[in-house]
Amino acid sequence: MYVRRSFEEPPVHPEHVGVHESEVTFSVMECSSQRGKRKLVSSNGFTYVYKRFNPSKQTTIWRCSVRNKTSTCPAIVVPWVQSFVSNGSNHSHQAKPGIDKALVINTKDPRCKLDNY
């Protein structure tokens, strides 16, 4: 009789089962921040707000929108080719799956629009 000593399952890698992570897409939502400014929304549940424009590289820097008295998320993304790249800092909070669709539904201002990247 075989007795398994550990209840942990061996790790399964996506390449072993033919499943790959879906590509993260980004959209700019006009006037969706609390101050009516643009917000960058990712399909994996994170949102970013405008931080600054880098004139030497001609790029816009976006920071994570989670920022309050108790939490400051260090994640930053910048445009690269036809997508965005991270600064390497992980988010300090959980993602909100479906936030990209919720912002479209909750935005009532007719001037607000969604620009996909």
Notes on the structure:
The protein has 2 helices and 7 strands. The chain has a single domain, classed as N-terminal domain of TfIIb (Single Sheet), CATH 2.20.25. It has a 7-stranded antiparallel beta sheet. A hairpin with a 2-residue loop joins strand 5 and strand 6. The radius of gyration is 19 Å and the shape is globular. By secondary structure, the protein is mainly beta.
Features:
117 residues; mainly beta; N-terminal domain of TfIIb; 7-stranded antiparallel β-sheet; 7 strands; disordered N terminus
What is shown here, in short?
By secondary structure, the chain is mainly beta. The chain contains two helices and seven strands; from the N terminus they run H-E-E-E-E-E-E-H-E.
Percent of residues in beta strands = 25-35%
H-E string = HEEEEEEHE
Uncertain runs are: 1-7, 12-20
Spatial strand arrangement across the major sheet:
6-5-4-3-2-1-7
Domain count, please report it: 1
Helix content: 10-25%
The main β sheet shows up as: 7 strands, antiparallel
What CATH calls the topology is N-terminal domain of TfIIb
Q: Given the C-alpha coordinates, what overall shape results?
A: globular
Structural class category: mainly beta
Q: What's the N-to-C terminus distance? A: 57 Å
Q: How many strand elements?
A: 7
> Any idea what the CATH architecture is?
Single Sheet
**Nearest-angstrom radius of gyration?**
19 Å
CATH C-level: Mainly Beta
